[in-house]
Amino acid sequence: MGDNKPTYPPSLQVPNVQEMVLKDPLKVPERYLRNEKEMHARPDLSHLSSQVPVIDLSLLSNGDKEELLKLDLACKEWGFFQVVNHGVESKVLQGLKDASAEFFELPLEEKNKISMPPNDIQGYGHAYVVSEDQILDWSDTLIMLVYPSWFRNLDIWPAKPQRFKDSMEAYSTELKRVAMELLGSLSLIMGMEKDSLIGLHKELVQAMRVNYYPPCQTPEKVLGISPHSDTSTITILTQDGDVTGLQIRHQGGWVPVKAIPNALIVNVGDVTEILSNGMYKSVEHRAVTNESKTRLSYATFFVPLDEVEIGPLSHLIDTKGSLPLYKKIKYGDYVRTSMKMEHDGKAHIQIAKAQD
Ligand SMILES: O=C(O)CCC(=O)C(=O)O
Ligand SMILES: [Fe+2]
């Protein structure tokens, strides 16, 4: 069992953004410039920020019917929600943030000791760079598998700061509990037993991505992370401080998510969209940069084992008399094919679309 650690298609090597900004804060190379249409064409929906649903995890845990209905609506209408009363202590959240910030402040050569190897996407570097002429994201990233623990490749976990591993472990263990609770509630609102979704995963695989967004003098011209939906079942995100950066697609525009302090931001991923035959939508999101402040975000992806076949749940097709919108596909094939594609909104979910 211990030898079968998954690896993922690697990304092309591109410049370190943090270093670029350190050397010349005014320089924004052409490779990072977005077209104006992409940045400005959509309606400004920032006034909708306050309407992003808020879910109380302690109520969900008690099986509160009203809260389950709220969750159902949040997954249908927004695909994103904030979770409060999750029970993750603020010192655990802060521990992860401090240790990560300390890692990113290390000299480049120290960080490069765990740079992504040529055959994997885990480690320090950039993700989803698949062609030399693609527009690049204004960010650097650190990616690692955390659970099940025998999936860990500790060679690419930061050795410095010393407390990094413990902080990551403490945070991830807590998030696993939150995810199990959320997946239990999702099972219920999808008309199944509470433990069905977890069972379907065979093993709940948990991967972590720490995003580092340096400031950019012209934030209106670059993106921290390109629009995409996550290939996960669910993603739980937390962010550093009060710098807003995350924006979600809603009603044809972009809505900034203003994080409630210490709340966790959850989004529905492609797997849930596929399983629910489109009833719940994995929503496109992106991150913008800030003119003067660095932002860090911490995304935890919960996914099934590679061998698990995902496809619309039969009871969700049968009861509604609707056609399956997606075909059955092994999760491992889905995620690996998507990683060979440039982030382009939700284009990669086509991999699982049923033929008409
Ligand atoms: O930084 C953010 O808020 C978004 C990060 C994200 O979408 C991701 O890592 O998949
Ligand atoms: Fe994402």
Automatic annotation (TrEMBL):
It holds the Pfam family DIOX_N. One of its GO terms (molecular function) is L-ascorbic acid binding. SUPFAM superfamilies: Clavaminate synthase-like. Gene3D superfamilies: B-lactam Antibiotic, Isopenicillin N Synthase, Chain (2.60.120.330). Keywords: Iron, Metal-binding, Oxidoreductase, Vitamin C. It comes from the Eukaryota. Residues 204-304 form the Fe2OG dioxygenase domain. InterPro entries: DIOX_N, IPNS-like_FE2OG_OXY, IPNS-like_sf, Oxoglu/Fe-dep_dioxygenase_dom, Plant_2OG-oxidoreductases. Signal peptide: none annotated. PROSITE patterns: FE2OG_OXY. Belongs to the iron/ascorbate-dependent oxidoreductase family. This is Fe2OG dioxygenase domain-containing protein. It comes from Cannabis sativa (Hemp).
